[in-house]
């Protein structure tokens, strides 16, 4: 197949990869055959530590489809697979993108059906589903993974019953998006289930499903792990519960270690209630800091120890302000220590959230853009990034689609055809 240079591609196929060197060649061969007659492109966003970038460079030479690759260095791999998908969408040159894995468990032959369904039914999202008639999840390795996949689907639909109504395979990694239906820069991906975030973050989406058979992995090892499962649950919680509410929940949970420590030191050890309250507060601060890192503010580039000291100082300053009130309530008004602690803590939670949010966890690189810059305005000129310097360089639009630019970037081949991007406005 000889790709057309008359206009932008009809579809951009985004393939996030991690150590898939052995699967690249058969994947591109099957895509080349399946997409015959379509103007298209393939974008690899690669987080590999093996020879995957080199394998892409070799395989693309015999492929009729324009191929681009963005290799992300370890320090750039923000958001996991979901972050890689967002990077690919920013690079795409088509109005539609298809996201698929690089391990051949998603059949390339189904891509034209995804595109045809989107066009015919004017869909914003077309999900490749393993759980509708004609679909199959037999490629999942073992009963355990099948149980986890189906269980995660059920939990997600229970948490978002309205947004996910009619979606049978929320955990699918094989789907099509109409690019203009989404604000990619507003997403905060964390893990490998980006479809869930896309579906619940955008409003009034027209979603359709088609069946596909989830195949067996051809080579390499699965990237699914317990860590990914924990990241999924954490992200599900973050998508459902607003940040201030999460902060309040963490603060409320901190009452238990705070009150327990205060009671033990005051009643069991006989310490003065102010000393006991001070120590109890230190225990609660550590508890709350861990909770904030895990469930309220989180991002892979954050270094927790750098934030613990200011977090500790702010919370102890809060303690200094609370102690006079605590003294007034106990000695002046005759209230019990426990009730007085609850009152002062409740007053402090609201003030503490705003101070912490605007100082320690103010929007930084992960909240604005994975590269540590403000989100770029969506424009028709794609931005080419060099892996060696992580700088953004405007790409020339003079080269035809059939002539990808090959630039060595820190030992990695970076292939970017220079083309206008009408899919993102």
From TrEMBL:
Residues 246-357 form the GtrA/DPMS transmembrane domain. The chain crosses the membrane at residues 244-265, 271-296, 308-327, 333-355. GO terms for cellular component: membrane. Residues 12-182 form the Glycosyltransferase 2-like domain. One of its GO terms (biological process) is GPI anchor biosynthetic process. The keyword Glycosyltransferase applies. It is found in: Membrane. Pfam families: Glycos_transf_2, GtrA_DPMS_TM. One of its GO terms (molecular function) is dolichyl-phosphate beta-D-mannosyltransferase activity. Keywords: Glycosyltransferase, Membrane, Transferase, Transmembrane, Transmembrane helix. Gene3D superfamilies: Spore Coat Polysaccharide Biosynthesis Protein SpsA, Chain A (3.90.550.10). It is a multi-pass membrane protein. Belongs to the glycosyltransferase 2 family. This is Dolichol-phosphate mannosyltransferase.
């Amino acid at each position: 197949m000889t790709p057309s240079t008359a206009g932008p591609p009809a579809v951009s196929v985004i393939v996030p990869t991690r150590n898939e060197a052995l699967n690249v060649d058969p994947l591109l061969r099957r895509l080349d055959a399946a997409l015959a007659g379509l103007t298209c492109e393939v974008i690899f966003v690669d987080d590999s530590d093996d020879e995957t970038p080199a394998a892409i460079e070799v395989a693309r030479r015999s492929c009729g489809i324009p191929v681009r690759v963005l290799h992300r260095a370890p320090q750039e791999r923000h958001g996991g697979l979901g972050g890689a998908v967002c990077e690919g969408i920013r690079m795409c040159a088509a109005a539609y993108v298809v996201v698929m894995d690089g391990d051949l468990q998603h059949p390339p032959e189904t891509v034209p059906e995804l595109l045809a369904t989107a066009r015919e039914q004017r869909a914003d999202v077309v999900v490749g589903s393993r759980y509708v008639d004609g679909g199959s999840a037999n490629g999942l390795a073992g009963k355990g993974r099948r149980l986890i996949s189906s269980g995660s689907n059920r939990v997600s639909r229970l948490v978002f019953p309205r947004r996910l109504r009619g979606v049978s395979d929320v955990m699918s990694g094989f789907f099509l998006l109409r690019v203009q239906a989404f604000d990619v820069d507003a997403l905060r991906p964390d893990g490998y289930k980006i479809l869930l975030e896309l579906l619940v973050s955008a409003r009034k989406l027209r979603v359709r499903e088609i069946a596909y058979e989830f195949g067996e992995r051809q080579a390499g090892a699965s990237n699914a792990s317990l860590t990914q499962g924990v990241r999924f649950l954490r992200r599900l919680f973050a998508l459902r519960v607003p940040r201030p509410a999460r902060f309040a929940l963490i603060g409320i949970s901190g009452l238990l270690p705070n009150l327990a420590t205060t009671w033990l030191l005051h009643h069991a050890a006989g310490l003065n209630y102010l000393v006991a309250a001070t120590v109890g507060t230190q225990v609660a601060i550590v508890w709350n800091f861990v909770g904030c890192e895990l469930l309220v503010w989180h991002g892979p580039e954050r270094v927790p120890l750098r934030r613990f000291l200011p977090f500790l100082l702010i919370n102890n300053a809060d303690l200094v302000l609370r102690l006079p009130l605590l003294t007034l309530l106990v000695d002046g008004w005759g209230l019990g220590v426990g009730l007085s602690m609850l009152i002062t803590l409740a007053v402090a939670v609201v003030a503490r959230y705003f101070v912490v949010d605007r100082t320690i966890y103010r929007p930084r690189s992960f909240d604005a853009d994975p590269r540590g810059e403000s989100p770029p305005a969506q424009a028709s000129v794609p931005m080419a990034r060099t892996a060696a310097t992580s700088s953004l360089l405007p790409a020339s639009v003079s080269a035809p689609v059939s002539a990808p630019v090959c630039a060595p970037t820190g030992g990695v081949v970076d292939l970017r055809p220079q083309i206008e991007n009408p899919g993102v406005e």
